[in-house]
Amino acid sequence: MVLNWIWIGFFIIAFIIALVKLVFWGDFDVFPAMMDSTFSSSKTAFEISLGLTGVLSLWLGIMKIGEKGGVVNVLARLLSPIFTKLFPDIPKGHPVTGSIFMNIAANMLGLDNAATPLGLKAMEQLQDLNQKKDTASNPMIMFLVLNTSGLTLIPISILVYRAQMGAAQPTDIFIPILLATFFSTLAGIIITSMFQKINLLNRTMLLTLGGAALVVATVIWGFGQMDSILMNKVSTSAANIMLMLIIIAFILSGVRKKINVYDAFIEGAKEGFTTAVRIIPYLVAILVGIGVFRASGAMDMLIDGVKYGVEACGGNTDFVGALPTALMKPLSGSGARGMMVDAMTTYGADSFVGRLSCIFQGSTDTTFYILAVYFGSVGIVKTRHAVACGLLADLAGIISAIAIAYLFFG
After folding, report:
1. Which pLDDT tens digit goes with each residue over 149-179?
2. What are phi and psi of 364, to 5 degrees?
3. Which residues contact 206 (CB under 8 A, 6 or more apart)?
């Protein structure tokens, strides 16, 4: 529903602005430009989707090997001591903990197809424990915030889009995304714990969060000692090594489980092909809407307004062009994806704006969509502090993404 009104709004606002420009400024080129944008944007959307087929098939094939090889189960066991501290209201040993661990682990690996069913199952089990069936419980809200904060170890789709858009090094935003999504998730946990009066000052959480923060601080400090050229080389090399190690680890996990690794890859690759085909209409719709919005001059007016405000405060405005992706992300994943692609198309995949838009896309998740799907599946109508916690985590992700982008690419 939200995306429906956003899409309608693109066309209505674009038409009104174009009409004003025609009547008051005599701009006879604006409506032809808007119509041209519909054809060029739909062509771009199809070409992007077609180009995604091979890479999506590759990565989803690798992911299927890891899934069948038990990587998700291993991550669930490793995360168990941590999540039991975050969900004190769940009885010890309750089956829902397994679903929560599996969902979070699948999200971290980018296994969206596996994560959503596991998440819905977890919500059903949490609803069984819920005393007020129309009101979100504390464990439900913490679970939702962990999803909306977007903690992902492997941002495959973003890397794929960057490769498709002609980035010289598609993986150069890999480590910046890891850092930004860490801060978003950390903020979400802290904020939700404050609302729910969960004590994070225990040995397990202090060691986990403190250790993770120390690692991130060390990474930021280390990269801060390098010049921009060396930083880019080291970041890209580290990202490529990590991704290659993940591929090898997934394949070895399949060998260890004695599964047919080749058949598992083919099964996942088929899902990659159908996924690439399935996103064509969505990408066409959103890119055409954005194209009309931009051709009318509405996007420039929005960006110029924010830029003027930042300049008035004495701030650097290089990040402003990527803000549409950040503003759209809590509302719609496909909408934000369209904004990200539009930013890379307009400014260039290797531009500061193009890279920052990718970091925005990977630093958080679609808060309102996740809330609607997960709460709607069990009939929750009173969300309590879920929206506030989710949006504050998004804000932390946006701020950290901007700071990290300036550190790496500014």
Report:
1. 767 666 767 877 888 888 888 888 888 888 8
2. -140, 180
3. 200
List, as one string, the DSSP characters of 154-180: --HHHHHHHHHTT-SSGGGGHHHHHHH
Whole-number Å distance between alpha carbons of 138 and 183? 22
* Amino acid symbol at 104: I
**Closest by alpha carbon to 75, among 177, 181, 152, 174?**
152
**Cβ atoms 398, 326 nearer than 8 A:** yes
Q: Where are the beta strands (DSSP E) in 5-72?
A: none
Nearest CA-CA partner of 386 in 185, 199, 112, 143 = 143
Please provide residue 135's backbone torsions phi and psi, each rounded to the nearest 5 degrees: -120, 135
H or E element that contains 272: helix 261-278
Nearest alpha-carbon partner for 142 in 181, 93, 103: 103
Give Cβ neighbours of residue 192 (< 8 Å, ≥ 6 apart): 141, 142, 145, 198, 385, 389
Which of 55, 65, 63 has the alpha carbon at shortest distance from 262? 65
User: Residues 266-297: pLDDT tens digits?
Assistant: 998 887 777 777 778 877 887 788 788 888 98
Q: Which residue in this structure is represented by tokens 């692609």? A: 341
